[in-house]
Amino acid sequence: MKPQLPSLRQLATVGLLTSSAGLLLSACSDSGDNETSETAQEPTEVTVYSARAEHLIQPIFERYTEETGVKVRYITDNAGALIQRLKAEGSNTPADLLLTVDAGNLWQASQEGLFQPVESEVLERNIPEHLQADDNEWFGLSVRARTIVYSTERVDPSELSTYEALADDQWEGRLCLRTAKKVYNQSLVATMINTLGEEQTEEIVGGWVDNLATQPHSNDTSAMEAVLAGQCDVTLVNTYYFGRLQKENPDVKLAIFWPNQDGRGVHVNVSGAGLTRHAKQPEAAKDLLEWLSSPQAQEAFAEANQEYPANDSVEPSDFVAEWGDFKADSVNVESAGRLQSDAIKLMDRVNYR
Ligand code: FE
User: Fold this and answer.
1) Separation of 238 CA from ligand 1 center, angstroms?
2) Would you say 353 and 205 are in contact if contact means Cβ atoms under 8 Å apart?
């Protein structure tokens, strides 16, 4: 049966085909073999708007199609563009799921009214409470830690302890940070406000700015490259970016340090997804979301980007496990969204750009 989705042509008339791929891609071929032909009511296609890159999601969606016969169509773009697109499309959107990174973005989409809650025992069982929205509008699917990476040539790990301590004089002219414009450090600062309060957080972030060796970097990789180049000695990055450098160069002169192990733990964030308010295939989309949270999918979903599975019954890959165990901050990641605008203002006040 024909899925009730706008055709590509209808989509194009919306005039918003601005994704990096530029096309709505189908994760499987239109081979015509219809595994679900005997159940004519069964929807055969789910449409996903994904801020997670194509090479990370395509193999997962292909597996889903192999296992269930349900096709997954998707576009990829950055979170902001996908959120704007969903808003503009309103009830005409073909999207059933929005998959994005960082609780700050998921929260934003939720605030814009783009999601609807999903009541699911499977999701409640698979995804820990602090990695999902209170109102069940989104669920974390993988976990990334935002942690300290240091030069193994110039830093002894015994010098390191907490995020807060990077504001100490000892690190003057030795710290590199990513720009405050990206959601990652906004979320880190937001969760610090949540735990430490605004005043203390402002003091710490101001101390970081005082210690900067360079202007903030456009991305985590360039911050680590600055450490490698000797411009600074420590930085804060998401673990998978470190993993990418380490994959390219196993002897890279950088290492991970897990801060705040005697206190609140390492700041973790998620990639995650929610059912769109105007989903045309809500049941099929819920099935896909549940499957993504299941042990069979979690391993591959996390491993594709060298992340940690959100489902804690699943072990991280051997490569990721090599970085060692750590205590993660168990604050609900939703606070990253709730306090995002406070974090942005705070960073601005201390001239963190
Ligand atoms: Fe990233």
Assistant:
1) 7
2) no
Residue 36 maps to a domain: no
What's the confidence (pLDDT) of residue 31? Answer: 43
What's the number of domains the chain is made of? 2
CA distance 232 to 224: 9
Report the distance separating Cα 311 and Cα 326, nearest Å. Answer: 16
How far apart are the CA of 144 and the centre of ligand 1, in A?
Answer: 9
Q: What is the pLDDT of residue 11?
A: 33
pLDDT for position 22: 43
Domain interval for residue 99 = 9-15+43-143+269-315
Predicted pLDDT at 44: 83
| Structural domain contains residue 34 | no
Residues in the chain where the model's pLDDT stays below 50: 1-22, 28-39
pTM attached to this predicted model: 0.87
Answer for the pair 105, 278: CB distance below 8 angstroms, yes or no: no
Residues 71 and 208 in one domain: no
pLDDT value at position 302?
Answer: 97
pLDDT computed for residue 25 by the predictor: 60
Q: What's the gap in Å between 203 CA and the centre of ligand 1?
A: 27
Note whether 59 and 304 are within 8 A (CB). Answer: yes
Domain co-membership, 164 together with 293: no
What distance in angstroms lies between residue 9's CA and the mean position of ligand 1's atoms?
32
Q: How far is ligand 1, taken at its centre, from the CA of residue 79, in Å? A: 11
20 CA distance to ligand 1 middle (Å): 16
> Residue 204 is part of a domain; what is its CATH number?
3.40.190.10
Write the pLDDT tens digit of every residue in 259-292: 999 999 999 999 999 999 999 999 999 999 999 9
Tell me the CA–centroid distance for residue 232 and ligand 1, in Å.
Answer: 21
Query: Cα(52) to centroid of ligand 1, in Å?
Result: 9
What is the distance between the alpha carbons of residues 137 and 75, in angstroms, rounded to a whole number? 21
Both 280 and 329 in one domain: the answer is no
Amino acid at 225: E
Quote the ligand 1 centre to 89 CA distance (angstroms): 26
33 CA to centre of ligand 1 in angstroms: 37
Å from CA of 281 to ligand 1 middle: 29
- Phi, psi (deg, nearest 5) at residue 169: -55, -30
Q: Is residue 37 part of a domain?
A: no
